[in-house]
Amino acid sequence: MIALSRxxxxxxxxxxxxGDDRERPLSLEIAQSQxxxxxxxxxxxxxxxxxxxxxxxDRRAVRGxxxxxxxxxxxxxxxxxxxxxxxxxxxxxxxxxxxxxxxFWSASTVGGEIRDSNGAVVxxxxxxxxxxxxxxxxxxx
Length: 141
Known about the structure:
By secondary structure, the protein is mainly β.
């Protein structure tokens, strides 16, 4: 029997609103919402979770997809939809791109943008995978 493991990630970091240099805290927790046997071939993973972008989207639901690269391990794209505090529809697009010269840093960093419904950039962000969450689950086994 094949055991399907569920994708789950916690990312923490910061974002900057367009035109503002001040960093604001951002966290994102996502988990796979549907089982997938071959996620690299089947259009990615359907995910849902919660974003906490202080002042922009405080503890708001997110849903979308994480697209895993077939040819490069650890490389992935995040395409998520959310609603801002003011009710505006936003999309979060991010990418994790491992590089040979900084393998650990680049493989654990997700950078990207949050855009409004017209496609205008609302914020830019940089997140890091929070390995403490996964480590505590793994050690608890």
